[in-house]
Amino acid sequence: MPPARSPAAGLRRRKVFLPLVLVLPLILLTLILIFPSRSIPALRDAALRSQQICDYAAGGWVPDSSAESHLRYDHTCKEIFKGWNCIANGKRNGCALLRWRWKPAGCELLPRLDPLRFLERHRNTNIGFVGDSLNRNMFVSLICMLRGVNGEVRKWRPAGADRGFTFLRYNLTLAYHRTNLLVRYGSWSASPNGGPLESLGYKQGHRIDVDIADQTWAEAPSFHDILIFNTGHWWWSSSKFDPIQSPMLFFEKGKPIIPPLLPPQGLDLTLKHMITFVNKAMRPNGLKFFSTQSPRHFEGGDWNEGQSISRHFISPTSTMRTALSLLSFLAVSVLILAPMAMADGYSQPQDYQPPAYRKPADGLAAGYYGESCPDMEGIVQRAVKKAFAADYTIAAGLICLFFHDFAVGGCDASILIDAPGSEKYAAASKTLRGFELIEAIKTELEAKCPKTVSCADILTAATRDASREVGVSYWPLVYGRKDGRQSRKEAADKYVPMGRESVTDLVAFFESKGLNVRDLVVLSGAHTIGKASCAAVKPRLCKNKPETLDGKYGDFLRRKCRRGDAEHERVELDGVTPTAFDNGYYKNLERRMGLLETDQKMLHDSRTRSFVQEMAREPEEFKRQFAESMRWLGNVQVLTGSEGEVRSKCSAVNY
Fold first, then answer.
1. What is the pTM of this model?
2. Which active-site residues does the annotation give?
């Protein structure tokens, strides 16, 4: 527990912050996120040794001679909070603070962070810092280092974050979610009608709901691949929660906990609930780790003492160490996060599993047809462009066909098999189209490259090229998929979403495929083009809920679907801009004009709402994210090597 300080000391602390607050995040992040490309064998040996004998909680500060040639960043980084910008505020040795590194006991000094390698290693990744100002410092330090080598960023607030940045070239998003206690809290006053706490003499205090995550980060687990938590000093801060005048009063399931808990007990119970919450809400195979304590911002001697220290000069020494608990957090950081930023040639821990939706399928490669069929992509692209010029609706048809193939057993072209009882004849497949185009492309490829290009690869490439025709961002493809031999209509009717599922069912379906909530919302945006049958719409009309269905739009749909055969009568999925691939689909949800019941539900579910709102605001971001999600969708449960075959005709298996 930090030593007690007077209110006056707390006031001074808020006005001027310890200069080392700038260097601490650098030390943390250097250890957490390093491993450049040089000295690979030595690095591998040192890392393996460190896992056995290295004590990251012990060591000392040592001069960093390599920093003389280039600083990690300087005072010009705009993300540094003004009060904490030591160099800009005239700290005489502010720059010198950037030239020290923490050397753990029993270990060689690890190489410095290579920002470019970090960006490359964390392509298509979301990293969230959740906690108080110490986590904010780590977030800011990392942002400053990365922006020093790549300035193509978009500033936004993903999943309720206080701030966030996406490095556009790498699709790497980093965000900071401000939370002091991790859980919801607010002021509490005694009720004139009395109650359990009032009967014990409590008149005012702070209500802490130990089982309700703070709204600032409640959606973070479903968004981020990596979450870094911290909390600690707020729990024992008398300047925040005076134990006499405004004590912490803990609530569980909406009721006060009697007898009242002390802060350490309240923290234990909070962590128990939040660990359960994160484990349930975290996206598949996400990484998360946690620090149960953090040092205070204070002016006062070494990290483990409370002595006075000059505001104008500070000299790091071997005794300047964080609390043991923080360094334990640092050790966990090194052992968990470092493998994700390793240089080429370094061995992953045997039990490390990358997220399923980011794991490349073995056997796929960008240049798979480079020698065997070098014009494969050109043949597909020209055929799609010609078909699109004749009928622009083919784009929606191919996207839908591709998704149906993915939904049943993965991307193996099983939807293309034309045989009694196959997926093509399922009720879920009645509105599918694009079969003839894929078969025509296959025929041309067989003439140029016999028995070489699979139907699964043709469908994947044709869908990408059709998407580009309607304005979706380009995404690179890898090839080598093989065609499946199984196709059953019962499987299609069981697994293909039909527009009546709950959001929970859809989330579970996507996660079973290694995708996530964001992918669900983004890929649903394909409903900005194309049509649906009235049979899919009627359940929404029958429920007649004004709060979820615009009255005029509902009347239009009833008139449209009142006539003719419900299976064959078609309605535009986007009633406002039906021929444009734009973010109108999400705007329609905000207007209560989602055609399918499942679509409209996404606006009202806490797991999907923020993504819907984001896509409604950011039309170009939608197109970029759609391309990214489609890229990963095409890698789901693929067959490679001897697992499948290359069909001679897409409509029939080989015999």
1. 0.50
2. 404
